[in-house]
Amino acid sequence: MKKNYQKIIFLGTLFFLSANLNAQTKDSVQVKTVDEVKITVGSRNKSRVATDTPVPVDVINIGSQSVLTPQTDLNQILNYAAPSFTSNSTTVADGTDHVDPAQLRGLGPDQVLVLLNGKRRHTSSLVNINGSPGRGSVGTDLNAIPAFAIERLEVLRDGASAQYGSDAIAGVINVIMKKNTNAFTAAITGGGFNSKGANDHTGGWDGAKYQLDLNYGTKIGNNGFINFTASLLNRDDTRRAKSATGDIFNGYNAIEQRALEKGVNISALFGNINNTSNTQQIIDYIHQYAPNVNYFTAAQQANIQSANTIVALQDLLKGDVTENELAYRGLTRDDFNMRVGQSRLGSGQFFMNSEFDLSSTIRGYAFGGISYRAGNAAGFYRRPNQSRTSTSIYPNGFLPEIASDVIDLSFAAGFKGKLGNINYDISNTFGRNTFDYTIKNTANASMRYPNKREFDAGGLGFSQNTINADFDTKIDWLKGFNVAFGGEMRFEKYKIENGEEASWALYDINGNIQTPTTAAALKPTDFFGGTRPGGSQVFPGFRPENALNNGRHSVAAYVDTELDVTDRWLMSAALRFENYSDFGSTFNYKLATRYKLTDQINIRAAHSTGFRAPSLQQIYFNATATQFVGGVPYEVGTFSNDSDAARYLGIPQLKQEESTSYSAGFTVKIPQMNLTFTVDGYYIKIKNRVVLTDQFSRPSGTYPAESDLGRLQAAFDKANANAATFFANAIDTQTKGIEGVISHKAKFSERYSLNSDLAITVSKTNRVGDIHGSDVLIKAGQVNRYYSESSRVYLEEAIPRFKASLNNALEMDKFSVLLRNVYFGKVTDPNTMDANGDGIVSGEIINGQAVATEHPVWGGKVITDLSVGYKFTKNLKLTLGANNLFDIYPDKNYGPTAVKTPSLDASGNLVYVNTSTIDLSNQNQFVYSRNVSQFGMNGRFLFARINLNF
């Protein structure tokens, strides 16, 4: 850590030295910088530039970034370029392995609005339900837009619901597409991870990445253009586990293998070991093939031969024989490692942007594209000694895979012109995202032999159609009055398509789907009597009961004004009314002001209210999935918010989140030094924030069928679930922070220049007030599951609350150099552990219960990027570089640790008496936390890129 801070200090010194050197050069050449570009977000005044707005707007030149930066997808470009933005790939998190959640100002992925060319972008169909930052949210899939199609990004860091509608609580990201004409550009990128942690920590290379980007533009008529972008990507997986520990094989697995080698499949002879007509045959085969297990002792062999019942053999064969059996099968523990790291991915994208004359006074435009991605991620390894493993077809166990097909389609078209003094823009924007699951290298353990190995598990779909009519005009009042007004209609649809029956069904031994009344003797078991779960392992398919196709619509009207009271004083105000067909109306406003103290110093402030409509995904998503908690698998049902199960628990239907925001800041320019400073502070309070609850267990005991608890049991059983989660407006939160940016542009001569940016963000989010638990939950002592300690960590501490970046871009004749250092602050793991080594997991009494509150904290790190480009000709440039140059990894996870956990004694005092073992590494597989990560766990990435320009 000390070395990292030394790097920051050293580079910071270089930054300010370069500023002072440039101040002495007296450069008279005026260069149009990106912050002088007229912005299209945050202000509907078409002549406003980023440094002149009453709220902070970052303008990021993606076109120049894409030449030197090691990152090629939009999420990661933003993650390293904008400290207020956070996004990281997850691992072993089902669908979230394929769509990266992105966050602004520490708020949720669904609390930032994304625009494409100023038009609302649709969200993903995927809702994040597994353990990762942004849990319970639905975000916009930024990686569905190829970075090579983008000219610049405008990031509005302020609440803007009154201007743009739902979701814009944290801010707005506006993606501006390229408009280039008469030019063909291409980028060919190849690279991989050359790291000490590669290939399960044996070193070398893995995660190879190859990408081809093409862009071409041409004119349409005299004033129009059309620009095309195509992108192809192939990305291999990375592996960051270590040798699997723990038990893998038992004695029965050894005998079963010897029988299989002779063509006898013992496990195929029974469905339920306690209810089979083949009992004697099974016993005979065990007697026949046990002698072939040469490491059994003579006593063990004698005991096996004298055992004439299944029960007796179960007792004899349950022991661990892993080391001997590995040697016999020619395997090592590495063969049972999980695929922990980057998922496999192949993608193809094609986008278009155009604008053209429809007449002498009317211009038309159209843009959009299609993105197809095929992903492959793996789950937890199913070991042969586990009841959920079908050893009849996988004698060595198996690593199930989730293959995803994600198709993202969008198209917008409209026309704009001028009627008198009023500008108008009429448009229609359509977007659709589908996410289809195919589960591979897996099995339904409840199916009779022979079993399937691949399942169609169904899929998700979300579509959105938005109609906009926008108008603006300038009125000659005081120093200028800009008035914008308009309306919007939006239609949304969300669907779940069920998978094939075998992907979700829990069968009995006769091949019939189980019901709550299925007798225990008919339920499939393994040899030891352990009940087998149904559905495709790692991701049970969507059931017919899950399938739906629901929609809603909304209408909105707004007015957005800006008044230059004097040459120095700007005031703006916006009002928006919006009505949703499913939850009613909302009215929001925004006030903002900017005052020029001098020509170089501005102060600014804003106040607004905002809202976020609960997404259709949050309202209607329902499914059952296998989730591992502390290495233990649970079949967890996510019940829709309007389900009977939610009603029995007293969970109310979802309503909109409502926010109140305040911000204030200043900007300073020092022309003599070519320096620009901006500092902004903000406060955001959100009421009725939507979260995904913790797991509620299936009620135990026997209850009348017509009682609420009896019906709740039936709902669990129908979903094949032993635990349940729900979406709920569980809490109110507050977020406060401060952001600062220092930019310096040094031009030493026509051939030598240095641009530097230092950006820092500090933020904090916490719950305010009580948990909004129902009377039913409070009386049942379940309010801590409604909003749990782990949910608190995900919300408040799972992403860096301090982040800083120092970017230096140097141009030296034909050479270009990018040196960037990003400090990712500490994060807290949602799992509990004895982090301070005192032998206990510290806890607190919360809502009358003992709750463990001691968590690992993963320290902050500095990640260094370095790229060097050389321009051979005006048409050819070669770039070599590295992300994470010094091969930095997060802090290592905790392995098996014996700890005492908190509980309450008879007097209600907190005590530590119960001893248990916690293994956050899951038997050496998660060397680094899979639940939180500031910058990933893949290590150093080296790349080469060829840029062509014709």
Structure description:
With 950 residues, the chain is mainly β. The protein has 17 helices and 39 strands. The chain has a 22-stranded antiparallel β-barrel. A 5-stranded mixed beta sheet has the order 1-6-7-4-5, covered by helices on one side. It has a 4-stranded mixed beta sheet with strand order 21-22-26-25, with no helix packed on it. The relative contact order is 0.13. Mean pLDDT is 91; it is low at 1-35.
Keywords for this entry:
950 residues; mainly beta; 17 helices; 39 strands; 42% strand
Helical content stands at 10-25%
Instruction: Report the major sheet.
Output: 22 strands, antiparallel, barrel
Low-pLDDT residue spans: 1-35
The termini sit apart by 46 Å
Number of helices: 17
- Strand element count: 39
Rg calculated over all Cα atoms: 30 Å
Oligomerization state: single chain
> Based on CA inertia axes, which overall geometry fits?
globular
Mean pLDDT: 91
Counting helices, strands and paired strands, the structural category is mainly beta
Q: In what range is the share of β-strand residues?
A: 35-45%
